[in-house]
Design goal:
alpha/beta, 6-stranded mixed sheet, 3 helices, globular
Length: 98
């Protein structure tokens, strides 16, 4: 199974909210193994542009330190699951990249 996930970072640490110059670290997984990686620097803090980027890259799950409830709701409507830092404990993917 192929899936695409992203970790949102700000200067190497998990990002808080969406803002300009944050990194979207995109991982493509095949059978739970990383098969591709891409790093994208955000040029805007616009949540609409951010949401479009996630859809274009076919991202189904993002990891971020924290996110507004409004943006979480929008991403859920788009079929993108959000895991904030308090949900990371025991997460198999996060444990392998740390």
């Amino acid at each position: 199974m192929i899936k695409t996930i992203a970790i949102i970072t700000d200067k190497g640490t998990p990002g808080k909210e969406i803002k300009e110059n944050m990194q979207v670290n995109v991982f493509r997984l095949e059978n739970d193994k990383v098969s591709g990686y891409e790093s994208i620097k955000l040029s805007s803090s616009d949540t609409g542009s951010f949401s479009k980027l996630l859809k274009i890259k076919k991202i189904s799950l993002i990891y971020i330190d924290s996110m507004s409830n409004e943006l979480k709701r929008l991403l859920k409507i788009l079929g993108i699951h959000v895991k904030c830092k308090e949900e990371w404990e025991g997460d198999e993917f996060i444990e392998t990249v740390n």
